[in-house]
Specification:
By secondary structure, the protein is an all-beta fold. The protein contains no helices and 21 strands. 0% of the residues lie in helices and 69% in strands.
Length: 360
């Protein structure tokens, strides 16, 4: 178990381009993690929350929840099964183009997912077959002029089937190829604009898994993602990019994590089938002393629409001072610079945080 509590100052609580309002908030971050110590099989789980209550602009009170569990069953020496389930709650403000400018507060989104996979070692080759399902739920948004935006037409379910073949000799460097099929079905046949948003999705990956721990650890892949929509008025949405997560630990005191992602986002626009996103982030941690850790990171995201590209840059700095085995003091800075396809929507936000963390 872990509990963080502190204060947050923001220069632009609503992410507004024209009416930036500073505010101070109280932050609470509980989390829990467990891990089995069985001789065979493996089970782990984690849950975390991030809740912020602002003193003056309580419409922008923010909540974020992430929870998940993973299980591995060793069926035979060469065969195992893996299961995972997750839940995520996130919020999006009117700074996002898919949320009305007249929205009061944030839109709340829910994502639930579950997967089951069978992995078999063929001797030099490893095959994996995975079945999954994902459910997305978008809550309605209250509007300042009265009424609400009904987002029930966004709610959808996405089953998936993925097949992967990896070359496992040598085990430190495993090239693989993966193909996934993921149709998407919306709760409502027609969306708010009378369009049929159900679609067929395909993802193809060619990559490599690195296992030279603790020096290098992770996975990188060249990815092609495509989604073809039932309504002929909606263009096929497709993107090529890199997905992966790579950890480099040159010393026992320093670690660097690189994360890259390519994706396709849905849209409720009458003139767009969706957007393409490419994002990357690098985070570094260095122990100056046994009880003093410096943190730094930088992220960039590019979201391409039919009319242009939104760019988001997000640097951060932090420090953690372990006062004793159960208590730490933290302080940090987060910045956001958003450059929209429409220049009038550009904004920036600076956040300063400080607090304490209780650990067991």
């Amino acid at each position: 178990p872990e509990l963080g509590a502190g204060t947050v100052y923001t220069s632009n609580v609503g992410g507004s381009a024209t009416d930036a309002k500073p505010d101070v908030g109280l932050s609470l971050k509980p989390s829990l993690r467990f891990e089995s110590d069985w001789v065979r099989h493996f089970w782990t789980g984690q849950a975390s929350g991030d809740f912020t209550a602002y003193l003056e602009n309580d419409d922008f009170n923010a909540s974020q929840i992430d929870a998940g569990s993973q299980c591995r069953l060793d069926i035979r020496h060469t065969t195992r099964a893996e299961f995972d389930a997750s839940y995520a709650l996130g919020q999006v403000s009117s700074a996002d183009s898919e949320v009305p400018d007249t929205a009061i507060g944030n839109r709340t989104d829910h994502t639930l997912a579950a997967n089951a996979a069978v992995i078999h070692d063929f001797g030099g080759l490893e095959g994996r077959a995975k079945l999954g399902i994902e459910r997305q739920i978008f809550e309605d948004v209250d509007l300042s002029g009265g009424g609400t935006e009904d987002n029930s037409d966004r709610n959808n379910t996405t089953p998936s089937l993925a097949l992967r073949l990896s070359y496992t000799d040598p085990p430190a460097l495993k090239p693989f190829v993966e193909l996934a099929y993921a149709p998407r079905f919306h709760d409502e046949k027609f969306d708010r604009n009378g369009l049929r948003r159900d679609s067929q999705g395909i993802n193809a990956s060619l990559g490599v898994t690195l296992d030279q721990g603790p020096f290098w650890l992770g996975e990188l892949a060249l990815v092609y993602a495509m989604r073809d929509y039932e309504d002929s008025a909606l263009d096929t949405n497709e993107a090529i990019g890199i997905n992966g997560n790579l950890t480099w630990a040159p010393t026992d005191l320093t670690s660097v994590v690189l994360t890259l992602a390519t994706g396709l986002n849905e849209s409720a626009s009458a003139t767009s089938s969706g957007s393409k996103t490419w994002s990357g982030r690098i985070d570094a941690a260095h122990e100056l002393r046994e009880n003093l850790i410096l943190l730094a990171g930088f992220g960039a995201e590019f979201e391409k629409y039919s009319g242009g590209t939104d760019t988001t840059l997000s640097p951060n700095l932090g420090i953690e001072w372990q006062l004793n085995p159960n208590l730490a003091w933290t302080a940090g800075y987060d910045g956001t610079w958003f450059e929209a396809e429409a220049s009038g929507d550009n904004y920036n936000e600076q956040r300063l945080m400080t607090g304490i963390v209780l650990r067991r």
